[in-house]
Every structure is written in C-alpha cells, then in structure tokens.
C-alpha cells in the first residue's frame, strides 16, 4: 500500500532555481515547507544550518515527512581553480553528510531523503546512452558525484528511503547554464559550442519539479534516478531549437580552443557528451509534460 503523500518538507538550497520552484509548488498544494538557511532564522519556516561546519539544527527537522537536499556551489559559477574545485566538492560532500547525520539522529526520521546529484557522474559517454545502471565515469565531477551520493550513508543506515536526483541541464531563463544562454540567443548571438556534437541531457524546469515530487511520493524509488528528458539532444540540436523558438539566427559558434581559453578546465565539461536517459522515472510511471527540446524551450518562456 502506497503511503499518503508527504505534507511537511524541509529543503536546502531553497533560494536556488530548483529549490525555489519546488517550494512554490509544494506550498501551492497545501504542503508545509521548512527552509534551511545559513544564518540566524528570521521566520517561522526557517531552520539554521552551516554546511561548512557540518551543523544542522536537527530540532527544526522534527516532524518532517521528507527532506530535499539541493544545496551546493555552482559548477559553472567560476573558473576551476584549486580553491574552487575544493568549494565544489566540500559544499556537496560536507553539506550532504551533515544533512544525513541530522536526519539519522531524529527519534522519528523522515520517510524519505532526496539528495541532489548530477548526470556528470557518468563522465563523457560520447554517443552512448546511459541509464542509472551505468558505472561512474572518470574525472573530477564523477569523483565528486560519487562522494556526494556516498555521504548520505547515515540516513540510509537509519532506514530512511534515500534517492539521488541525478539532474541534467535544466531549461529555464532564471538560472543555471540555460539561464546564461537565453540572453545571448535573444540577442541573436547564440550558437553551438565546439563542434556541437556533444549530447546534452536536458529537462524542463516544470518536469524537474514534477519529477522531484514524484520521487517524494513513490515509495519504490530509491538510489539513483536520472532527471532528464527521454531523448537527449546534441548541442547542435539544442542550438537549432533555441533559434527556431526564439526566431533568431544562430550563426555564431565558439570553437573549442576559445572555450578552453575562456573557461579553463571547465571547458572540458561544456564540451563533454552525456547522453543520460531516465529509465527509472519512466518505469515508475512518470509522464513528462515537455519531453522535447522545442517544448522545453517554449515552456521556459511562458
């Protein structure tokens, strides 16, 4: 028998693109949202935590049916200096360990912990489609993702159903990689990156939120779950779709050497190919509202 849907949900990263949208969606349906903040609480729905010190006010999580952990330093926010690589890793691994330990410490822990992860765990897959059964790839981001997911161990050992939301590129104008692209394409300055043959595993923001809520309410889902549209597209195809929907030319292209000069080591991730497919979501009965790239871009503009 399926349990009743969750009603009190704690969220880290609630001011980010995905966290803010998830909080709005839950509240619109009458659920109570508890926001974990990195300062002294100023409102009744806030709970203090500090991922650097691995501190969580666990009392604030009491009574929560679910915890959704989305916080982490943006992968594309800065050049990958040694200091920022450490920030990327520590913000995920230390923060996740703190949340998992706080969850495990509760007398009555939440039924489910959904912890963010990414399709970057698969590394460069070229044109090969991969689902949740694929092993981790090689490189910095795959190693970070593995540690990130392993940091949930205390919650799992406490019997909490734990799912890893391996999210792809979220199509939205408000933030993330796509948020940086929309202004360029609207100005007619958009174009492919490198040769454009690398696969991009995308998902509309609407479907991202719907998928997270589906995981919360579906008892059979635990472990890795790819949050990507059913048919990944190449960067060249995504570029063409942006041009079609926005009715702008896409004549400009950024050669791979120029990307490496501009972005440093991060360029290797921009140029890598990840063709991740959402097998577990589809098998569990999830239905995408915007499965195609043109549909996802149009949805983002509404």
Q: How would you characterize the overall build of this protein?
A:
By secondary structure, the chain is α/β, with parallel strands linked by helices. It has a domain of 207 residues: NAD(P)-binding Rossmann-like Domain (Rossmann fold). The chain is built from eleven helices and 14 strands. It has an eight-stranded mixed beta sheet with strand order 4-3-2-1-5-6-8-12, sandwiched between helices. A two-stranded parallel sheet has the order 7-14. A two-stranded parallel ribbon has the order 9-11. It is globular, with a radius of gyration of 19 Å. The protein starts with 7 loop residues before the first strand and ends with a helix.
- CATH C-level label of the domain at 8-172 and 201-229 and 276-288: Alpha Beta
Anisotropy-based shape: globular
Spans of at least 5 consecutive residues with low confidence:
none
Quaternary structure state of the chains depicted: single chain
* Count of individual helical segments: 11
Q: Strand-residue fraction?
A: 15-25%
Adjacency order of strands in the biggest sheet = 4-3-2-1-5-6-8-12
CATH topology of the domain at 8-172 and 201-229 and 276-288: Rossmann fold
Number of strands: 14
Helix content: 25-40%
How far apart lie the N and C ends? 38 Å
Quick synopsis:
This protein has 302 residues and is of the alpha/beta class. It is 38% helix and 18% strand.
